[in-house]
Amino acid sequence: MISRRSEKQKMLSGDLYVASDPELQRDMAQCAEWLARYNRHDGTLHERLGQVGTNATIRAPFYCDYGYNIFLGDNVFLNFGCIVLDVVQVRIGDGTQVGPGVQILAADHPRDPALRREMLESGRPVTVGRHVWIGGGAIILPGITVGDHAIIGAGSVVTHDVAAGETVAGNPARPLHAGMPRG
Protein backbone atom coordinates (compact mmCIF):
# COMPACT_ATOMS: atom_id res chain seq x y z
CA MET A 1 0.00 0.00 0.00
CA ILE A 2 1.37 3.40 -0.98
CA SER A 3 1.33 6.05 1.73
CA ARG A 4 -0.47 9.26 0.83
CA ARG A 5 1.07 11.13 3.74
CA SER A 6 3.59 13.83 2.97
CA GLU A 7 7.18 13.42 4.09
CA LYS A 8 6.54 16.23 6.59
CA GLN A 9 3.54 14.34 8.03
CA LYS A 10 5.69 11.22 8.32
CA MET A 11 8.45 13.22 10.02
CA LEU A 12 6.09 14.84 12.51
CA SER A 13 4.64 11.46 13.49
CA GLY A 14 8.10 9.97 14.05
CA ASP A 15 7.94 7.61 11.07
CA LEU A 16 10.65 7.12 8.47
CA TYR A 17 10.74 10.03 6.03
CA VAL A 18 12.96 11.45 3.30
CA ALA A 19 14.76 14.51 4.67
CA SER A 20 15.58 15.78 1.18
CA ASP A 21 11.87 16.23 0.42
CA PRO A 22 11.33 19.69 -1.17
CA GLU A 23 8.79 20.80 1.46
CA LEU A 24 11.16 19.88 4.30
CA GLN A 25 14.10 21.49 2.53
CA ARG A 26 12.03 24.68 2.19
CA ASP A 27 11.14 24.53 5.90
CA MET A 28 14.80 24.07 6.81
CA ALA A 29 15.84 26.97 4.53
CA GLN A 30 13.24 29.21 6.20
CA CYS A 31 14.52 28.11 9.58
CA ALA A 32 18.11 28.86 8.51
CA GLU A 33 17.07 32.39 7.50
CA TRP A 34 15.34 32.84 10.86
CA LEU A 35 18.37 31.47 12.75
CA ALA A 36 20.66 33.91 10.93
CA ARG A 37 18.44 36.79 12.14
CA TYR A 38 18.09 35.24 15.60
CA ASN A 39 21.80 34.71 16.08
CA ARG A 40 22.57 38.30 14.96
CA HIS A 41 20.24 39.68 17.62
CA ASP A 42 19.91 39.24 21.34
CA GLY A 43 17.98 35.96 21.35
CA THR A 44 14.48 37.42 21.45
CA LEU A 45 13.10 36.43 18.03
CA HIS A 46 10.90 33.56 19.19
CA GLU A 47 8.22 33.68 16.46
CA ARG A 48 9.32 30.48 14.74
CA LEU A 49 9.21 28.29 17.84
CA GLY A 50 6.16 26.15 18.67
CA GLN A 51 5.71 27.78 22.08
CA VAL A 52 7.78 30.05 24.26
CA GLY A 53 6.73 30.64 27.85
CA THR A 54 7.05 33.84 29.81
CA ASN A 55 10.64 34.92 30.53
CA ALA A 56 12.15 32.10 28.45
CA THR A 57 15.67 32.91 27.29
CA ILE A 58 17.70 31.39 24.45
CA ARG A 59 21.21 32.80 24.19
CA ALA A 60 22.62 32.99 20.67
CA PRO A 61 24.04 31.20 18.88
CA PHE A 62 21.24 28.66 18.81
CA TYR A 63 20.68 25.90 16.25
CA CYS A 64 17.68 23.76 15.33
CA ASP A 65 16.17 21.96 12.33
CA TYR A 66 12.69 23.48 12.10
CA GLY A 67 11.89 25.44 15.25
CA TYR A 68 8.15 24.82 15.18
CA ASN A 69 8.53 21.53 17.12
CA ILE A 70 10.21 23.24 20.12
CA PHE A 71 7.99 24.03 23.12
CA LEU A 72 9.49 25.94 26.04
CA GLY A 73 7.81 26.54 29.40
CA ASP A 74 8.03 29.64 31.56
CA ASN A 75 11.47 30.75 32.79
CA VAL A 76 13.37 28.25 30.64
CA PHE A 77 17.01 29.19 30.04
CA LEU A 78 19.15 27.83 27.17
CA ASN A 79 22.77 28.98 27.29
CA PHE A 80 25.10 29.67 24.35
CA GLY A 81 25.50 27.16 21.54
CA CYS A 82 22.60 24.80 22.19
CA ILE A 83 21.44 22.48 19.41
CA VAL A 84 17.91 21.08 19.25
CA LEU A 85 17.22 18.64 16.40
CA ASP A 86 13.45 19.01 16.39
CA VAL A 87 12.08 16.75 13.66
CA VAL A 88 9.38 15.83 16.23
CA GLN A 89 8.35 17.61 19.41
CA VAL A 90 10.91 18.67 21.98
CA ARG A 91 9.30 19.95 25.19
CA ILE A 92 11.21 21.68 27.96
CA GLY A 93 9.33 22.37 31.19
CA ASP A 94 9.07 25.48 33.35
CA GLY A 95 12.20 26.66 35.12
CA THR A 96 14.59 24.29 33.36
CA GLN A 97 18.17 25.50 32.90
CA VAL A 98 20.23 24.19 29.98
CA GLY A 99 23.99 24.73 29.97
CA PRO A 100 26.13 25.84 27.03
CA GLY A 101 26.68 23.47 24.14
CA VAL A 102 23.90 21.06 25.11
CA GLN A 103 22.47 18.91 22.31
CA ILE A 104 18.88 17.67 22.45
CA LEU A 105 18.48 15.23 19.59
CA ALA A 106 15.00 14.06 18.59
CA ALA A 107 16.23 13.06 15.11
CA ASP A 108 17.07 9.40 14.60
CA HIS A 109 18.16 7.06 11.81
CA PRO A 110 17.27 3.47 10.96
CA ARG A 111 19.59 0.78 12.29
CA ASP A 112 19.23 -1.12 9.00
CA PRO A 113 21.99 0.05 6.61
CA ALA A 114 19.76 -0.51 3.57
CA LEU A 115 17.24 1.98 4.95
CA ARG A 116 20.00 4.47 5.77
CA ARG A 117 21.21 4.22 2.16
CA GLU A 118 17.73 5.36 1.13
CA MET A 119 18.40 8.52 3.19
CA LEU A 120 15.47 7.79 5.51
CA GLU A 121 15.27 9.41 8.92
CA SER A 122 12.80 9.33 11.80
CA GLY A 123 12.28 11.05 15.10
CA ARG A 124 11.36 10.25 18.69
CA PRO A 125 10.07 13.06 20.92
CA VAL A 126 12.18 14.35 23.79
CA THR A 127 10.56 15.65 26.97
CA VAL A 128 12.48 17.48 29.67
CA GLY A 129 10.49 18.11 32.84
CA ARG A 130 10.21 21.14 35.07
CA HIS A 131 13.11 22.64 37.03
CA VAL A 132 15.69 20.33 35.44
CA TRP A 133 19.34 21.35 35.31
CA ILE A 134 21.32 20.11 32.28
CA GLY A 135 25.06 20.70 32.55
CA GLY A 136 27.16 22.07 29.69
CA GLY A 137 27.95 19.80 26.79
CA ALA A 138 25.40 17.13 27.71
CA ILE A 139 23.72 15.15 24.93
CA ILE A 140 20.16 13.90 25.22
CA LEU A 141 19.33 11.20 22.68
CA PRO A 142 16.02 10.61 20.79
CA GLY A 143 13.01 9.42 22.73
CA ILE A 144 14.33 10.39 26.18
CA THR A 145 12.15 11.69 29.01
CA VAL A 146 13.82 13.56 31.85
CA GLY A 147 11.66 13.86 34.97
CA ASP A 148 11.00 17.01 37.00
CA HIS A 149 13.84 18.29 39.22
CA ALA A 150 16.44 15.94 37.67
CA ILE A 151 20.07 16.94 37.17
CA ILE A 152 22.14 15.90 34.14
CA GLY A 153 25.90 16.26 34.74
CA ALA A 154 28.06 18.24 32.34
CA GLY A 155 29.24 16.20 29.36
CA SER A 156 26.81 13.35 30.02
CA VAL A 157 25.28 11.28 27.24
CA VAL A 158 21.70 10.45 28.22
CA THR A 159 20.74 7.13 26.64
CA HIS A 160 17.87 6.17 29.00
CA ASP A 161 15.02 8.02 30.69
CA VAL A 162 15.93 9.91 33.85
CA ALA A 163 13.53 9.65 36.80
CA ALA A 164 12.16 12.71 38.58
CA GLY A 165 14.63 14.08 41.11
CA GLU A 166 17.46 11.83 39.92
CA THR A 167 21.02 13.02 39.27
CA VAL A 168 22.87 11.30 36.42
CA ALA A 169 26.33 11.75 34.94
CA GLY A 170 28.76 10.07 32.58
CA ASN A 171 28.80 8.36 29.22
CA PRO A 172 26.41 6.69 29.24
CA ALA A 173 24.72 8.70 31.98
CA ARG A 174 24.16 6.69 35.15
CA PRO A 175 22.47 7.59 38.44
CA LEU A 176 24.76 9.08 41.09
CA HIS A 177 24.39 8.22 44.75
CA ALA A 178 26.54 9.94 47.36
CA GLY A 179 28.73 11.22 44.54
CA MET A 180 29.54 7.78 43.13
CA PRO A 181 28.19 6.14 39.96
CA ARG A 182 25.88 3.21 40.68
CA GLY A 183 26.43 -0.16 39.02
From TrEMBL:
<dbReference type="Pfam" id="PF00132">
    <property type="entry name" value="Hexapep"/>
</dbReference>
<dbReference type="InterPro" id="IPR051159">
    <property type="entry name" value="Hexapeptide_acetyltransf"/>
</dbReference>
<keyword id="KW-0012">Acyltransferase</keyword>
<protein>
    <submittedName>
        <fullName>Sugar O-acetyltransferase</fullName>
    </submittedName>
</protein>
<dbReference type="InterPro" id="IPR011004">
    <property type="entry name" value="Trimer_LpxA-like_sf"/>
</dbReference>
<feature type="domain" description="Maltose/galactoside acetyltransferase">
    <location>
        <begin position="8"/>
        <end position="54"/>
    </location>
</feature>
<dbReference type="Pfam" id="PF12464">
    <property type="entry name" value="Mac"/>
</dbReference>
<keyword id="KW-0808">Transferase</keyword>
<comment type="similarity">
    <text>Belongs to the transferase hexapeptide repeat family.</text>
</comment>
<dbReference type="InterPro" id="IPR001451">
    <property type="entry name" value="Hexapep"/>
</dbReference>
<dbReference type="InterPro" id="IPR024688">
    <property type="entry name" value="Mac_dom"/>
</dbReference>
<keyword id="KW-0677">Repeat</keyword>
<dbReference type="InterPro" id="IPR018357">
    <property type="entry name" value="Hexapep_transf_CS"/>
</dbReference>
